[in-house]
Design goal:
The chain has 299 residues and is α/β, with parallel strands linked by helices. The chain has eleven helices and 14 strands.
Length: 299
């Protein structure tokens, strides 16, 4: 992609911050949407709960990347926090999509964050983008989340849903919590360890987002996962190998349900998700296996 003007929501999050760094390093102008009064010259105000976007700040943008949303594992799933998870995604996406659609010259592409939570628990059955949504809270959120982008799609903007898996990184997300435990020798499998984890190295996540922006044929859902999902038992063994620490501890399923409440169902659930559309369009993973993804996170 030649130097472009690109707007990004969620720019302080794990993925958003890394994407902004990557885009700016390649000479792109990045506009960051913030939920407070805009201060710096690269900031544009938006308020997802009030459905407000300062559309003047989006004028001239070639792409909008929408990554904002409340953390799924940041709090216990009370009814209030489940509403926060849903509203932060659905209302935020609707606000961005409507703002994009209202522009006289809209951007060429709206790239919306989504998640492999769309598929629910798939057991040991591999699924790609052609699979239907699963059942439960997260699948229902993902369906509404993606549907909220309809105004942009109806306005003729190429709209993509990046269904991201578990990002292997030290700086945040699920793996950001795992690294300290495993470094301390306190890591181990969760439940029976047979559930599949569909992971992606942070480097590959950013490269995949860039690939989507640069590939006009990509529309609709795109799975951002590595090509070889592995079980939690295999993840545990790989963390022990790479960090050279014992992995003797286990977190039994009943204890996880007490500690995490409803969210435990997703921690113990199995998702064997394949990146069909990335592979079809020639994307190359730098860190395709779990050991290399963990090592990349430690660099």
């Amino acid at each position: 992609m030649s130097p472009s003007r690109i707007a990004v929501t969620g720019s302080t999050g794990l993925i958003g911050a890394a994407l902004v760094r990557s885009l700016r390093a390649d000479g792109h102008e990045v506009v960051r949407l913030v939920r407070r009064p805009a201060g710096a010259g690269d900031e544009v105000r938006w308020d997802p709960k009030r459905q407000y976007v300062d559309t003047a700040g989006l004028v001239g943008c070639d792409a909008v990347v929408h990554l904002a949303g409340a953390g799924v594992g940041d709090h216990r799933w009370t009814e209030a926090y489940k509403r926060e998870i849903r509203d932060s995604r659905v209302l935020g996406t609707a606000a961005i999509a409507e703002a994009v659609a209202s522009l006289d010259t809209p951007p060429k592409v709206l790239l919306c964050g989504s998640a492999i939570g769309y598929y629910g628990d798939t057991g040991d059955r591999p699924v790609d983008e052609s699979a239907p949504p699963g059942e439960g809270f997260l699948p229902s959120v993902c369906v509404e989340w993606e549907e909220a982008a309809a105004p942009a799609e109806e306005a003729g903007v190429r709209t993509v849903y990046a269904r991201t898996g578990l990002v292997v990184a030290r700086e945040g997300g699920a793996w950001g919590r795992l690294f300290p435990l495993f470094r301390a020798g306190l890591g181990g499998r969760l439940g029976d360890g047979r559930q599949y984890w569909s992971f992606i190295a942070l480097h590959d996540e950013i490269a995949a987002l860039r690939h989507i922006l640069d590939t006009p044929s990509l529309t609709g859902p795109v799975n951002l996962t590595g090509p070889d999902p592995v079980t939690n038992r295999a993840v545990t063994a790989a963390m022990g190998r790479v960090l050279r620490r014992p992995t003797l501890f286990t977190a039994p399923a009943p204890a996880l349900r007490i500690a995490l409440g409803e969210f435990a169902g997703d921690v113990l659930g199995s998702q064997r998700v394949l990146p069909g559309r990335l592979v079809e369009t020639g994307f190359s993973f730098a860190f395709p296996d779990i050991d290399s993804a963990i090592r990349a996170a430690l660099r």
